[in-house]
């Protein structure tokens, strides 16, 4: 259950990162509100998952989901480039996340 909660927390991290970009420096009300709400949910779920997952594993997976998710969201919704180097970097992050999961007996 902790792993599912952690993945959901990571997805909310993507939401707040994306909405923060949309807030234009917290100058737009609704994207700012979404950012703050998603941050609260993301941090809350992260802390919940840390009840049974090790700090290093939980935090690394959470930030990795956020990083790769923001990368994908930027490509899909903001027209950011997906050149070979960036894609390889994202794949390396995903590989690291899988290794973290495999290294944790929980």
From TrEMBL:
- Which GO BP terms apply? xenobiotic detoxification by transmembrane export across the plasma membrane
Coarse class of the primary localization is membrane
The record's listing under InterPro entries reads:
EmrE-like, Small_drug/metabolite_transptr, Small_multidrug_res
Q: One GO molecular-function annotation for this sequence? A: transmembrane transporter activity
Does Transport show up as a keyword for this record?
yes
Give the transmembrane ranges. 27-46, 58-78, 84-102
A cellular component term (GO) from this record? plasma membrane
Localization annotation: Cell membrane
Please give the superkingdom of this protein's source: Bacteria
Q: Which Pfam families does the UniProt entry name for this protein? A: Multi_Drug_Res (PF00893)
Keyword check for Transport, yes or no: yes
Q: Which UniProt keywords apply?
A: Cell membrane, Membrane, Transmembrane, Transmembrane helix, Transport
Specify the protein's topology with respect to the membrane: Multi-pass membrane protein
Q: Which PANTHER family match?
A: GUANIDINIUM EXPORTER (PTHR30561:SF0), SMR FAMILY PROTON-DEPENDENT DRUG EFFLUX TRANSPORTER SUGE (PTHR30561)
Which family does the record assign? Belongs to the drug/metabolite transporter (DMT) superfamily. Small multidrug resistance (SMR) (TC 2.A.7.1) family. Gdx/SugE subfamily.
Q: What is this protein called?
A: Guanidinium exporter
State the species of origin. Answer: Roseicella aerolata
Q: Which gene encodes it?
A: sugE
